[in-house]
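Complex 487.
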Amino acid sequence: MPVTIQQIISQVKKDDPKINTDIIRLAYDFAREAHNGQTRRRGEPYIQHCLQTALTLAEIKAEIDVIVAGLLHDIPEDTNLTLKDIEKNFGKKVAFLVEGITKVGKIKYRGVERYVESLKKMFIATAADIRVILIKFADRLHNLETLEALPPKKQLRIAQESMEIYVPIAGLLGIWYLKHKMENLCFKYLFPEEYKKLEFKYEFEKKLENEKFVERTTNFLTPKLKEENIEFEIKGRFKSLYSIFLKMQRKDRKFSEIYDVFALRVITENIADCYKIIGIIHSLWKPKSHRFKDYIAVPKPNGYRALHTTVFGPNGKITEFQVLTRKMYDESLFGIAAHWYYKDKSAQLKRQPRWIKDILDIMQQSQKGDEFVSAAKLGVFKNRIFVFTPKGDVFDLPEGATPIDFAYAVHTEIGNKCTGVLINDIMSPLNTELKSGDLVEVITSKARIKPGKDWLKLAKTQRARAKIKQALKEGQQGALRRLIGWK
Ligand code: MN
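Predicted structure with manganese (II) ion bound:
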């Protein structure tokens, strides 16, 4: 279904009816003009990709600048217009975001599994801002949704890259909404047989049984909650296909043996109502013993909060209810994106890994003023760069590192025998400062016996300096030995 700009605007206004959305419309006109005449593989106008990306961002409640950057994200790479044009029309902040997306887009996954961790760090470091990551996820989601238009080899590469890099990062940031969508799509391309089988069963069970069950239970529960004047909304929550697949594998179970395929979610306004609702549920259906979990009093380590209970529900069917506030619900779906939307530091943030907290702090600071660009650097990976070997291995070096540091990071002998370097296929001086994403190839020669004397000045890492000193010393001793006739 083609997306319209009006849909995006309505989505934004849902959360804030009075918000001015003129800039979104301007960005749309700008992007449509820039991509005029371009089509995606399936033949649809290119602007659809921009609209889909922006709609996803609106759904996760991203702020207006992020949605604008989502509309403009492919302009510098794919059209005649430049980042300068974007900055002139939409300001520094939007241009900064678009620049980030362009940079992240250049990171290539070369299927080397042991470097996945470095790639993840590199992805985050290159993005330099959580908003860039959100846009990149939205962009990738639409690319995954339209993956069938690509040749099989490319499908597999993109699915694998997404599963190993994008999906885990989305999980770390708690953006489950995008994580589940992305991993289900990747699953389809990485395990097509298993996917097809499971999808059939899942759809069958979901459509024929659970949806009706959700509806009946909702109809039954609604008047009881209304009597108590509780504001609420009930939703069926279905486990993602990929999580079912993982659970079946982990526990060696059949699909029919997975019981928590769905739960009922009751979303309400405040915490007091959450407990009231649990009381009502327990008065209607007998709770299964020891199955009540209070993740509001004691949140899960990832910060998740809700009340869970399993009851012998309608028709004796064992049913899980999850009761939570609107804010908890948004946080459970949008993770870091929601924290930022609610703009507060709730107690649960303290439970996040250190680097996520750093990101959040930076986000909050950058909300305050125009120190945007400088504040937007991520504390954790600050001052690190990530460079590739021709084979696709990733090395993580300090900012300012030179090819000498890189050569010694790869191997001492590569360092000692280094005579030159190709950076992105261009012969470059050994004092060149490397940048994140550079592809570095060291040229070595057997004829070289020891490091250059000035290399100590070029080396920024401890490792390279120590190795150079050692090699120079040995070189001297060797020369001395040769001089006095020792071998
Ligand atoms: Mn794109």
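The chain has a mean pLDDT of 84.
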